[in-house]
Amino acid sequence: MSLHDELTSVQRCLDDLVRSVGRLEKQVGDGGLDIRRVRTDTDHLRESVALLRAAAPHTAEARPDLVTIPDTPYDASLWTDSDDEGLGARDRRAP
Questions:
Q1: What value, to the nearest 5°, has the Cα angle with vertex 75 and ends 72 and 77?
Q2: Which pLDDT tens digit goes with each residue over 64-75?
Q3: Whole-angstrom Cα distance, residue 94 to residue 84?
């Protein structure tokens, strides 16, 4: 995996953690010291991952090489054994 993929994976996991902590807060209540610590730790993790993403070198994604298609007509002998795909017989025009 590339660095960008790894950071994206970490971000997804962290988003899941934030949602889980939110659900946990609703069940436990937000008044306890322990749940506030967990919430603070998740906020710090979010900030740290954001800093990592900002500091990561941005590599340009490799684009596929372009294929030049010539404007010259194709050789008619390429199509001698091909079907007309529902266009009718070779000596007639399609309706």
A1: 170
A2: 788 888 888 888
A3: 10
Least confident of 4-8, 23-27, 65-69, 89-93: 89-93
Say how many residues make up the chain.
95
| pLDDT for res 74 | 82
Query: Is residue 14's pLDDT more than 80?
Result: yes
Ordered alpha helix ranges (H), the chain? 3-28, 33-55
More confident residue, 31 or 37: 37
At 67, give phi and psi (nearest 5°). Answer: -105, 125
Cα–Cα separations (whole angstroms), residue 78 to 16, 53, 81, 91, 92: 56, 52, 8, 18, 20
The encoded tokens of residue 24 equal: 């946990």
The three-class DSSP label of residue 46 is helix
